[in-house]
Amino acid sequence: MQEQQYEFEIDLETERIEQLLQSNNLVDFREEFLSYPLYEQAQIYRNLNEESRLQIYSYLSPQEISNMFEILEEDIESIEEYLLEMNKQYAADMLGEMYTDNAVDMLQQLPTDEIPTYLRLMDAKQAKQIREIIHYEDETAGSIMTTEYVSLKANQTVRSAMAILKSMAKEAETIYYTYVINTEGQLVGVLSLRDLIISNEDVMIRDIMSDRVVTVNVDDDQADVAHVARDYDFLALPVIDENNVLLGIITVDDIMDVMHEEATSDYSGLAAVDVDEVTNNPFEAAKKRLPWLITLLFLGMGTSSLISNYEGLISEAAILSVFVTLITGTAGNAGTQSLAVAVRKIGQPETEKRNFSAMILQELLTGLISGLVTGITIMIVVGIWKGNFILGAIIGFSMLMAITVANLAGSLIPILMDRLGFDPAVASGPFISTFSDLTSVLIYFSIAQYFLSNFL
Amino acid sequence: MQEQQYEFEIDLETERIEQLLQSNNLVDFREEFLSYPLYEQAQIYRNLNEESRLQIYSYLSPQEISNMFEILEEDIESIEEYLLEMNKQYAADMLGEMYTDNAVDMLQQLPTDEIPTYLRLMDAKQAKQIREIIHYEDETAGSIMTTEYVSLKANQTVRSAMAILKSMAKEAETIYYTYVINTEGQLVGVLSLRDLIISNEDVMIRDIMSDRVVTVNVDDDQADVAHVARDYDFLALPVIDENNVLLGIITVDDIMDVMHEEATSDYSGLAAVDVDEVTNNPFEAAKKRLPWLITLLFLGMGTSSLISNYEGLISEAAILSVFVTLITGTAGNAGTQSLAVAVRKIGQPETEKRNFSAMILQELLTGLISGLVTGITIMIVVGIWKGNFILGAIIGFSMLMAITVANLAGSLIPILMDRLGFDPAVASGPFISTFSDLTSVLIYFSIAQYFLSNFL
């Protein structure tokens, strides 16, 4: 498989680079290392020990190493270590060479009080651009945008536009989209390099630009930004403020990172664990997972103390205890399903408009239907198995009620969390199933008690 | 929020378009409709009823409507309806105008026996390109690639390359990357439009192309392709066969769709429900969820019949039944956590190399540690609550064992499924927790019986 073969190559390349470093072969190292694609440079660098990395800092210019770090910035775990082992001036120069959004991402990995030091050591213009972006709130459009874009004026020709493009091709993060602004810096049009290339050189930008620009607001949630980019199949999105002033652009490589980030956090939320848990150390893994386990353990204690109220009933009819896990388990499964659907629907921008009560009603009905089918099934099975259709009726009816309540909770709880401003994805599957254990047990034993005292 | 406001615009635009159609105002309709961004055209079209859509087919040429369908193809639910309501020749012409990969996606929504009809009605060259791609297996690189790319020769100048680019700018899916092939059609280099633009017009392609091309194989899994694209921050990836012959390219807009698809299927798998469930009809929703619920119900019956073997024990010590759900619930939560981590790790290409036994051992240890902490906690709590530390010990020890086993199952089961060629994501959280109900109950009652017969 592509990936395997490529992993294999990286290992070979790393060995080769290590040898060149050990033999202090500056010339061959530079030729070999710089010939690799940036991502592979990053992988090799990551595989090296600190000693070799320090050697690299003396073999490569800040400019050369900055290209590699444009890719490496995604590897948040180690950025701090890398930056702090560098000479501060060298690090500052490297950050200065990087695209603003990536430089900001990296600086944010450092202790807050360290950041000013690097900004001071940095080229003034770069430092200014970084200061402009670094204050935007995390996970907003502003925090992932870059200010290195190409802007044009409506009253210039394609020829002059192409001249600007060529001059900016090196520093701009993308030259494939250019943005037309007026004298107030407001965004008035967009133009792709494709449009420029196929147009006559004397045509005015005004005449070929599209003035229906799809934009995102600087405060928009990054998830919504990703949604727009994916819907429109754009390679970059312009970011504006409330006065339609162009502040920066978000390029598709950052969009892909956001999509990955969002997907991972949804997935993690559903399982109540950080699935990007990179550690192979069981102690650290356990440390990350225990908070949820212990919290839910105490929620589970609630269920236990509830059951202990029915100890008398159980010692009379021990058979009841046979079906507790069946009811709690099935209701938990139904609740998890409805939770996952609800979290996804909430995450979709269209839902913003849609009223939640409709969603809840639907889950309620879905629960009733699933509950009815499951309840009748289990009623028959138990009735036949235990030759006792009253027992079957108890289990079946409890199942129906428990599933309905679980479905309701599965949609209600994330919606409430969303309304209260929490991330709905925090309402995890384990939380819902532990919660529905409580309700299911309550339902089951109340119904059982009622039946037994009235029909037996 | 951006999305809201934009949703709002779509509604207004739809109304305007409906009016223009009702007043049979061909000219204004064309001017208005075609002035919208393609995604908005698609949204409006989607909001219209069949009658209005039929009218649109008579107002817009196949070429004009094809642009909109380049975006609409992602909306798989309705494609078949749209295609079948069109005149067959019109539909064939439209498909012929589309990028091959999108045309293939759309054709694949039709009943298989319908496809040849459209291919026959289509322009021969287009039909040939589609036939080349349509046979690639679903979810492989081949199935998402397009054949509309720009290829150059190493021994031509930048000037002639730019001429080719301009001539192909309209039909190529991207002109921002160009691929250099030799006379055997093998891929020998890659070149970005950025490189071309900043180079002197007389330079030879050979001298500015990069000959270290990152490629994917036509049979690679689409998830791995997305991984490569995201890692390298590429806007397009070349697809080759085993002889390094260039077959097509995959553009970043398709990569984003794959990322979304993969994330959704992982998420759905974990919750044992299709979260893209678009229906608002409770019956359909229940129909989609019930198969899992019922399957797991019968797995849960296993747990019940297991418990019924211990009815005697329970009627003696009803207190035991108080903690069943606590142990099964907590173990289920731990199992879900370890499942999610395992599925994610399996999904990462790097894991291919890494041996799974290490992963399983790690989960075993993680389980032991979490189990130890949770077990001791609950032992103390129960000991104090019930003033009975033997009971506490029974619960605590059972908890330790149950969590360890659940963690083991959480990693072992998806790994086995992967080894057996199934999608590991199918081992859902509900499945793992239902499964661990069984093992937990077995552990709990065996331990309880042992303790009670030996210490009381």
From TrEMBL, chains A, B:
InterPro entries hit by this protein: CBS_dom, CBS_dom_sf, Mg_transptr_MgtE_intracell_dom, MgtE_N_sf, MgtE_transporter, SLC41_membr_dom, SLC41_membr_dom_sf
Residue intervals passing through the bilayer: 364-385, 391-417, 429-452
PROSITE patterns for this protein: CBS
Domain of life (superkingdom): Bacteria
Swiss-Prot/TrEMBL keywords: CBS domain, Cell membrane, Magnesium, Membrane, Metal-binding, Transmembrane, Transmembrane helix, Transport
An example molecular function term from Gene Ontology annotations: metal ion binding
Subunit structure: Homodimer.
Family note: Belongs to the SLC41A transporter family.
NCBIfam families per UniProt: mgtE
Descriptive protein name: Magnesium transporter MgtE
